[in-house]
Design goal:
This is Methyltransferase FkbM domain-containing protein. It holds the Pfam family Methyltransf_21. By secondary structure, the protein is of the alpha/beta class. It contains 13 helices and 15 strands. It has one domain.
């Protein structure tokens, strides 16, 4: 009903518009009730199968004080998604299913092909040169931050490529679920999405690199995005002009639309401009049923939200629920190829450090969560690199 209403709202009478909006509101309320029912069911199921295994992660003041210096001595900042991805490639070469939520200019998705399937001839540098730059110039599309602060516009460093080759598995050893390699990229911003679709219309990799004009979150409905910015997370306020985009959850895409079939998601990357935690919450069932191996997301985020039947009010609580109910351990990168652990007794994301003579909150960081059994080898490698607090 909500989708059909959206098709004729432009030409409808005020009475029809009112009826449609009432129907949309009813649909949203009905969906919210269903979510609450599912959350309650998930919580009950967890209590039945994991009773007695819930542990507190509250830190004492003494523990927090001891963590601060260790964290600040090793904190490296936020712009390290490229390093994260290469790190995953070293140890999870068999990965074949990727989700890029907040695909933006497509450079992260292109890097996936560059690292895992170079035979497609797709690279982040090549994509920026052949697709993004010409499109921006031709359309006059403004961009104040074309490549971001990351290294995604550059070629993969030679030492990284050499290390990847040393870790690479032979073709006979690589398990790719029937060799069906696929990257699903989600981008709600209209002009960015149109750019990717236009480019793919002239190339033969549409089946392996699929773009979806959807805003992924923890609810179903609609949001409005501006037409003249490259920032996919810039949601418009009521009354402002823009393009209406449908919002959807990853659980609905997985279990309702069967977009991923029965496949396990090897890598889920989220960059939703402050709404990353909502995307995680919208994947509650996928997480609870252990269908996500590695997940990357950014901080800070907005709270509260409901994740797997629990109310979450902070990043620490988010990592705690992921630990107990999704068997995932979360980290942020540290100097010297180490990791700072967020799971367990950790108040890391509330620490303030002096970085290059400026006070910087550790909460502005990229987080990587690894499933302890579905990605057992990688989880063990990452844990061995984690800093030990005094």
């Amino acid at each position: 009903m909500a989708r059909s209403c959206a098709r004729f709202l432009r030409d409808a009478s005020l009475v029809s518009v009112g009826a449609c909006l009432h129907a949309v509101l009813f649909d949203v309320q009905l969906f919210n009730r269903k979510i609450e029912t599912v959350a309650t069911s998930l919580a009950a199921r967890f209590e039945q199968t994991h009773s007695g295994n819930i542990s507190s992660t509250v830190c004492s003041e003494e523990q927090r004080d001891k963590q601060d210096k260790v964290v600040c001595d090793h904190f490296v900042g936020r712009d390290n998604l490229d390093e994260f991805l290469a790190y995953v490639r070293y140890h999870v070469p068999e990965a074949s299913t990727f989700l890029d939520v907040g695909g933006n200019k497509g450079l992260f998705s292109a890097r996936i092909f560059e690292l895992w399937r170079p035979e497609f001839g797709i690279s982040s540098k090549g994509y920026s040169r052949e697709c993004v730059t010409p499109y921006f110039k031709r359309t006059g599309f403004p961009s104040h931050n074309f490549c971001g602060k990351s290294n995604m516009c550059r070629e993969v460093a030679p030492d990284v490529l050499a290390r990847i080759r040393s870790f690479a598995m032979s073709p006979s050893e690589v398990r790719r679920d029937g060799d069906l390699f696929v990257v699903h990229s989600f981008e709600p911003q209209p002009l960015l999405f149109d750019m990717h679709v236009e480019y793919q219309g002239h190339n033969g990799f549409r089946e392996v690199w699929q773009w979806h004009r959807l805003a992924v979150s923890d609810f179903h409905g609609q949001v409005r995005f501006p037409n003249n910015t490259d920032e996919g997370g810039a949601i418009m306020m009521d009354g402002e002009e823009g393009t209406v985009v449908e919002t959807v959850t990853l659980d609905t895409l997985a279990y309702g639309h069967r977009l991923f079939g029965n496949r396990v998601i090897d890598v889920l990357k989220i960059d939703a401009e402050g709404f990353d935690a909502q995307v995680v919450a919208g994947a509650s069932r996928l997480l609870f049923e252990q269908r996500i191996r590695v997940m990357m997301w950014e901080t800070p985020n907005r709270f509260p939200l409901t994740l797997m039947g629990e109310i979450v009010t902070s990043h620490e609580a988010l990592c705690d629920v992921l630990d107990r109910k999704a068997l995932m351990t979360c980290y942020i990168p540290a100097k010297h190829d180490r990791m700072i652990k967020l799971t367990g007794c950790s108040q890391v994301l509330s620490v303030k450090c002096s970085v290059k003579r400026q006070v910087q909150r550790v909460s502005k960081a990229n987080v990587m969560c690894v499933h302890r059994t579905n990605a057992e080898h990688f989880a063990r490698v990452v844990e061995e690199r984690a800093l030990v607090y005094p």
